[in-house]
Amino acid sequence: MLDELGQAGMIDWSRTCLDSVSVRAKRGGDLTGPNPTDRGKRGTKYHVLTDRNGLPLHVEISGANRHDSMLVEPVLDNITAIKGVGRGRPRRRPVIFHADKAYDNRRVRCYLRCRGIKARIARIGVDSKQ
Length: 130
Description:
By secondary structure, the protein is α/β, with parallel strands linked by helices. It is 16% helix and 29% strand.
């Protein structure tokens, strides 16, 4: 389906956004962990990468106790190659990467720089209104 959208020119690689959400896992499972937002009950965290228009490009699942920044590499490394308009190699890399303060650390910024992706990550300790 993503290939069809890419060939139709409906995927905007100019900007991507990554965020996560914690969900309580009542029955547990392999990808669960203590949920810090739900008094330590077992939970799962979904990490979703979207394009500029909010179209999901990739989803990773982890235990709720994993820090958001630990999943940047797996999410970006595992983006499925998506065919674009015309000829050439399929796209796998965004131009600009947006994320909230949970992803603000040196390791993430270095990883993005090495892959040629511009980071637009909110800074820890800086009010977003500034």
